[in-house]
Amino acid sequence: MNNSKLPQYDYDIIIIGGGPAGFTAGIYAARTGFKTLLLEGASTVSQITITDMIENYPGIPDGINGLDLMELFRKQALKFDLEIKAEDATAIKNNESYPHIWDVTAGSKVFRTFSIIAATGARWRNLEVPGEQEFAGKGISYCATCDGPFYRDREVVVIGGGDSAIQEALFLTHFASRVTVVHRRDRLRAAGILQKRAFAEKKIEFAWNATLDEVVGGEFVTGVKVRDVVSGEQRTIDAEGVFIFAGRLPHTGIFQNILQLDKTGYIITDDAMKTSAAGIFAAGDCRAKLFRQVVTATGDGANAAFSAELYIDNLKEEAY
Fold first, then answer.
1. Amino acid 111: pLDDT
2. Which value, to the nearest 10 degrees, does the dihedral of the CA atoms of residues 142, 50, 241, 55 take?
3. Exposure of 291 by Cβ count < 10 A (0-12 exposed, 13-18 middle, 19+ buried)?
4. What's the mean pLDDT when you consider all of the chain?
5. pLDDT digits (tens, 9 = 90+) for 65-113
6. If DSSP states are collapsed to H, E and C, what string results for the chain?
7. Residue from 192, 183, 194, 136 nearest 161 by CA
8. Crossing angle between the packed helical segments 163-172 and 192-200, to the nearest 10 degrees
9. How confident is the model at residue 176 (pLDDT cuts 50, 70, 90)?
10. Which of these ranges, 56-60, 173-177, 192-196, has the smallest mean pLDDT?
11. 267-283: per-residue pLDDT in tens?
């Protein structure tokens, strides 16, 4: 690009994903004056939209519903004229004529951009045990805030012992008559404050050192079979609802042959959110990192936008 005119392009930056990381990147990029498109596809819907209460986001001491927080992100982004399209990105490749341009396919169109910010997030992991597929939507759920009200005065089981599992177990106590937490270890991995609340809640019981063997029932779920990892004994816990929180899988398939991923599929970046491909940055839950929270996603988004801006500025300076 030295001493040449800039090639034709549609956007300075294209952001893929409409969660906290994506919208924060959009706010920063659009506010700085970069022509920016955010692709908010159905396959990259943020997990925050199904979170009942977020109480550890700075500046909101009374907590906020996840969907309400996303609406505030959107409102702020639109204020700075961020362009948003409800499309999934289906293909990404280097432009054949211009190596510094990326072609992003979304819907029936191909958009040219100097930089891409991957903010595609992650989804809940399936356990792939007998009965899980058969009873999906018939008693099995991965979202307590979505389906909890259907289990008023009923017994439910929560699988998992991390922050999400315990947070959702606590939420389910607003509806269920009993919540049994099934965890493969003899202690929880959740944050201390969540553990304290769970142990103090009379409706919550614990099945320690236990793994899920099978979900059973007729037309709908009637219980689960769990196995003691110490003794090997199996027992049945009666329940009409099973809520599974067994970790997440990143939405990174579209980047599989383009970017360096870790063994679990998360995008590897440096501290500036740079990936292994020039011009592509990553932010939020799709990125390999230690801690995945709304506040870390927004920080990632801001850093990714700033890094993309510096990258584009350098390209444009070299072109003249």
1. 97
2. 110
3. exposed
4. 93
5. 888 999 999 999 999 999 999 999 999 999 988 889 999 999 999 999 9
6. CCCCCCCCCCEEEEEECCCHHHHHHHHHHHHHCCCEEEECCHHHCCHHHHCCCECCCCCCCCCECHHHHHHHHHHHHHHCCCEEECCCEEEEEECCCCCCCEEEEECCEEEEEEEEEECCCEEECCCCCCCCCCCECCCEECCHHHHHHHHCCCEEEEECCCHHHHHHHHHHCCCCCEEEEECCCCCCCCCHHHHHHHHHCCCEEEECCEEEEEEEECCCEEEEEEEECCCCCEEEEECCEEEECCCEEECCHHHCCCCCECCCCCECCCCCCECCCCCEEECHHHECCCCCCHHHHHHHHHHHHHHHHHHHHHHHHHCC
7. 183
8. 30
9. very high
10. 56-60
11. 999 999 999 999 999 99
| Whole-number Å distance between alpha carbons of 277 and 298 | 22
Structure tokens at 180: 């049994």
For the whole prediction, is pTM greater than 0.85? Answer: no
Report how far residue 192's alpha carbon sits from residue 248's, in angstroms, rounded to the nearest whole number. Answer: 21
Amino acid at 84: I
pLDDT tier at 179 (50, 70, 90 boundaries)?
A: very high
CA angle 303, 309, 312 (to 5 degrees): 140
Catalytic residues: 143, 146-147
